[in-house]
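Q: Got a minute? One more chain.
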Amino acid sequence: VVLIYFDIIGSFFLIGLLVFGFFLSAASLKHKIPVIYWFLERFERPEVLKVFPGKGVLFGVFGVLISLLLFEKDIALAAIMILALGDSFGALIGPFGNIKHPKPFSQKKFIEGSIVAFLAGFIGAMLFVNPLEAFIASFVAIFFEVLELKMLNDKIDDNIMIPLMAGAVITIMRVYF
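A: Always. Here it is, folded:
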């Protein structure tokens, strides 16, 4: 976020990173690239490692890129903070939770993780937008992340869903309120 804020990296860099990342992902399906494979082995889900190594990172970069292309800079940065902090803290704290979400929400996620995700995203987003925008954007983004929406029978990746929902909510708030 800091590198984007100070215009050290931008859309062209992220596009290049995505292209390079997709090549590495494809190569990782056939070969165990030493440093890359070490990270994939430790941080990628085993079922994803077999079909799309690096999916989370690549979709995260894609979510950041889409945010930068679609939204004003302050909105994009707030949306990226909700993704970076909310999704990360939710994933760290969630497994220690005790209360699973009721249907139609994800049965794999815990309410405690979602609360922490919302709060972390809200705090991070307030660095770039006003508290009301940050609050509502974080709430809506985490709400939709827990819904696990599908498109063509495949779950929409939260690394794309979170920043898109957050940015769209703030944009709509500014246009209509």
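A: The chain is about 70% helix and 0% strand.
Q: Perfect, thanks.
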